[in-house]
Design a protein that fits this description.
Structural class: alpha/beta
Largest sheet: 6 strands, parallel
Order of helices and strands: EHEEEHEEHEHEHEEH
Distance between the termini: 42 Å
Number of strands: 10
Helix content: 25-40%
Shape: elongated
Number of helices: 6
Radius of gyration: 22 Å
Bound molecules: S-adenosylmethionine
């Protein structure tokens, strides 16, 4: 899977070098490119925000750099056989892409261009995801669905968010989703994107060594997972439930199912189907 991330804080994504996702990148399962939004500005201060129309507190991300960043990424994909980065340089997998903004000026469509027409979508076309507290809530089911995508572009908002026209423009070029991590407000989209990439990435075949470990997890079958234990059998006066130590796999399966139901009922009753 290819992942492009547009952000004003590329350094946030250094964590993608470690652990299972880091290895997936080394193995070529994940191809991650991080793009600095400020590389698509043209003023001395590399401005990406401005005051909101209509007044109000805070700043809004300007559409122009977003339009150019999306063009740079999507033009490259649209061109069959493209093997170079948006700036035309060969790119080592996982590098932060060092865009030469000048080279993407005039790459065809620009934000608000009259010729930004919706076009026929192919299955391999990128999905553009903007994290937003005003989006649909991210779930395990969505992570599983997105783990089958071949290319996802993430656009990280900051300040009061991104000018609405950017979403409309992106929609003219790709499938667009606004996705929320939950009902709270973060300072920016970076943390949300990290969480989504981790949840999606671990479902891609080859990323987790033993795929069976994915099957019984929380949210996979609509319930929370049962409690887990390891050695020693007794620790600081707390014993492992005897059913787990007697080798009766039928009894263990029944106990685990009961635990799943009990835990879900207690902590997340909203996940259970309504009582008949
Ligand atoms: N003014 C916006 C609102 O009320 O909907 C909140 C903007 S927030 C301070 C800045 C950015 O953080 C958003 O554009 C989005 O990228 C990200 N963000 C904040 N909360 C989020 C959440 N719950 N899920 C996903 N992204 C979030």
């Amino acid at each position: 899977m290819r992942i492009d991330i547009v952000t004003i804080f590329p350094e946030y994504f250094g964590a993608l070098d470690v652990s299972l996702l880091g290895r997936a990148r080394e193995d070529g399962i994940l191809d991650v490119k991080v793009h600095d939004l400020r590389a698509f500005t043209h003023d001395r201060h590399r401005t990406v925000d401005d005051k909101p129309y209509g007044g109000g507190a805070g700043m809004v991300m300007k559409p122009e750099p977003w339009g150019e960043a999306l063009d740079a990424i999507l033009d490259q994909v649209a061109a069959p056989g493209a093997t170079t980065d948006a700036d035309g340089d060969a790119n080592a997998d996982g590098d932060i892409v060092d865009h030469d903004a000048a080279s993407v000026v005039g790459t065809g469509l620009s934000a608000g261009a009259a010729d930004a027409r919706p076009r026929h979508r192919r299955e391999t076309d990128p999905i553009v995801i903007f994290p937003s507290p005003a989006g649909e809530v991210f779930t395990q089911a969505m992570a599983r669905e997105l783990s089958g995508a071949s290319h996802i572009v993430f656009g990280c908002g900051r300040y009061e968010g991104i000018d609405q026209r950017v979403f409309e423009y992106a929609e003219s070029r790709a499938s667009v989703r606004l996705v929320s991590l939950g009902d709270y407000v973060l300072n920016g989209g970076e943390v949300a994107v990290m969480a989504m990439i981790e949840a999606i990435g671990r479902l891609i075949p080859g990323v987790i060594g033993n795929p069976e470990s994915l099957v019984e997890e929380s949210h996979e079958d609509g319930l929370l997972e049962y409690p887990s234990y390891t050695k020693p059998a007794e620790w600081r006066g707390y014993a492992v439930p005897p059913v787990l130590t007697n080798g009766n796999h039928g009894a263990i399966a029944v106990w685990r199912r009961e635990q799943q139901l009990e835990r879900t009922r207690r902590v997340r009753p909203d996940l259970l189907p309504p009582a008949q």
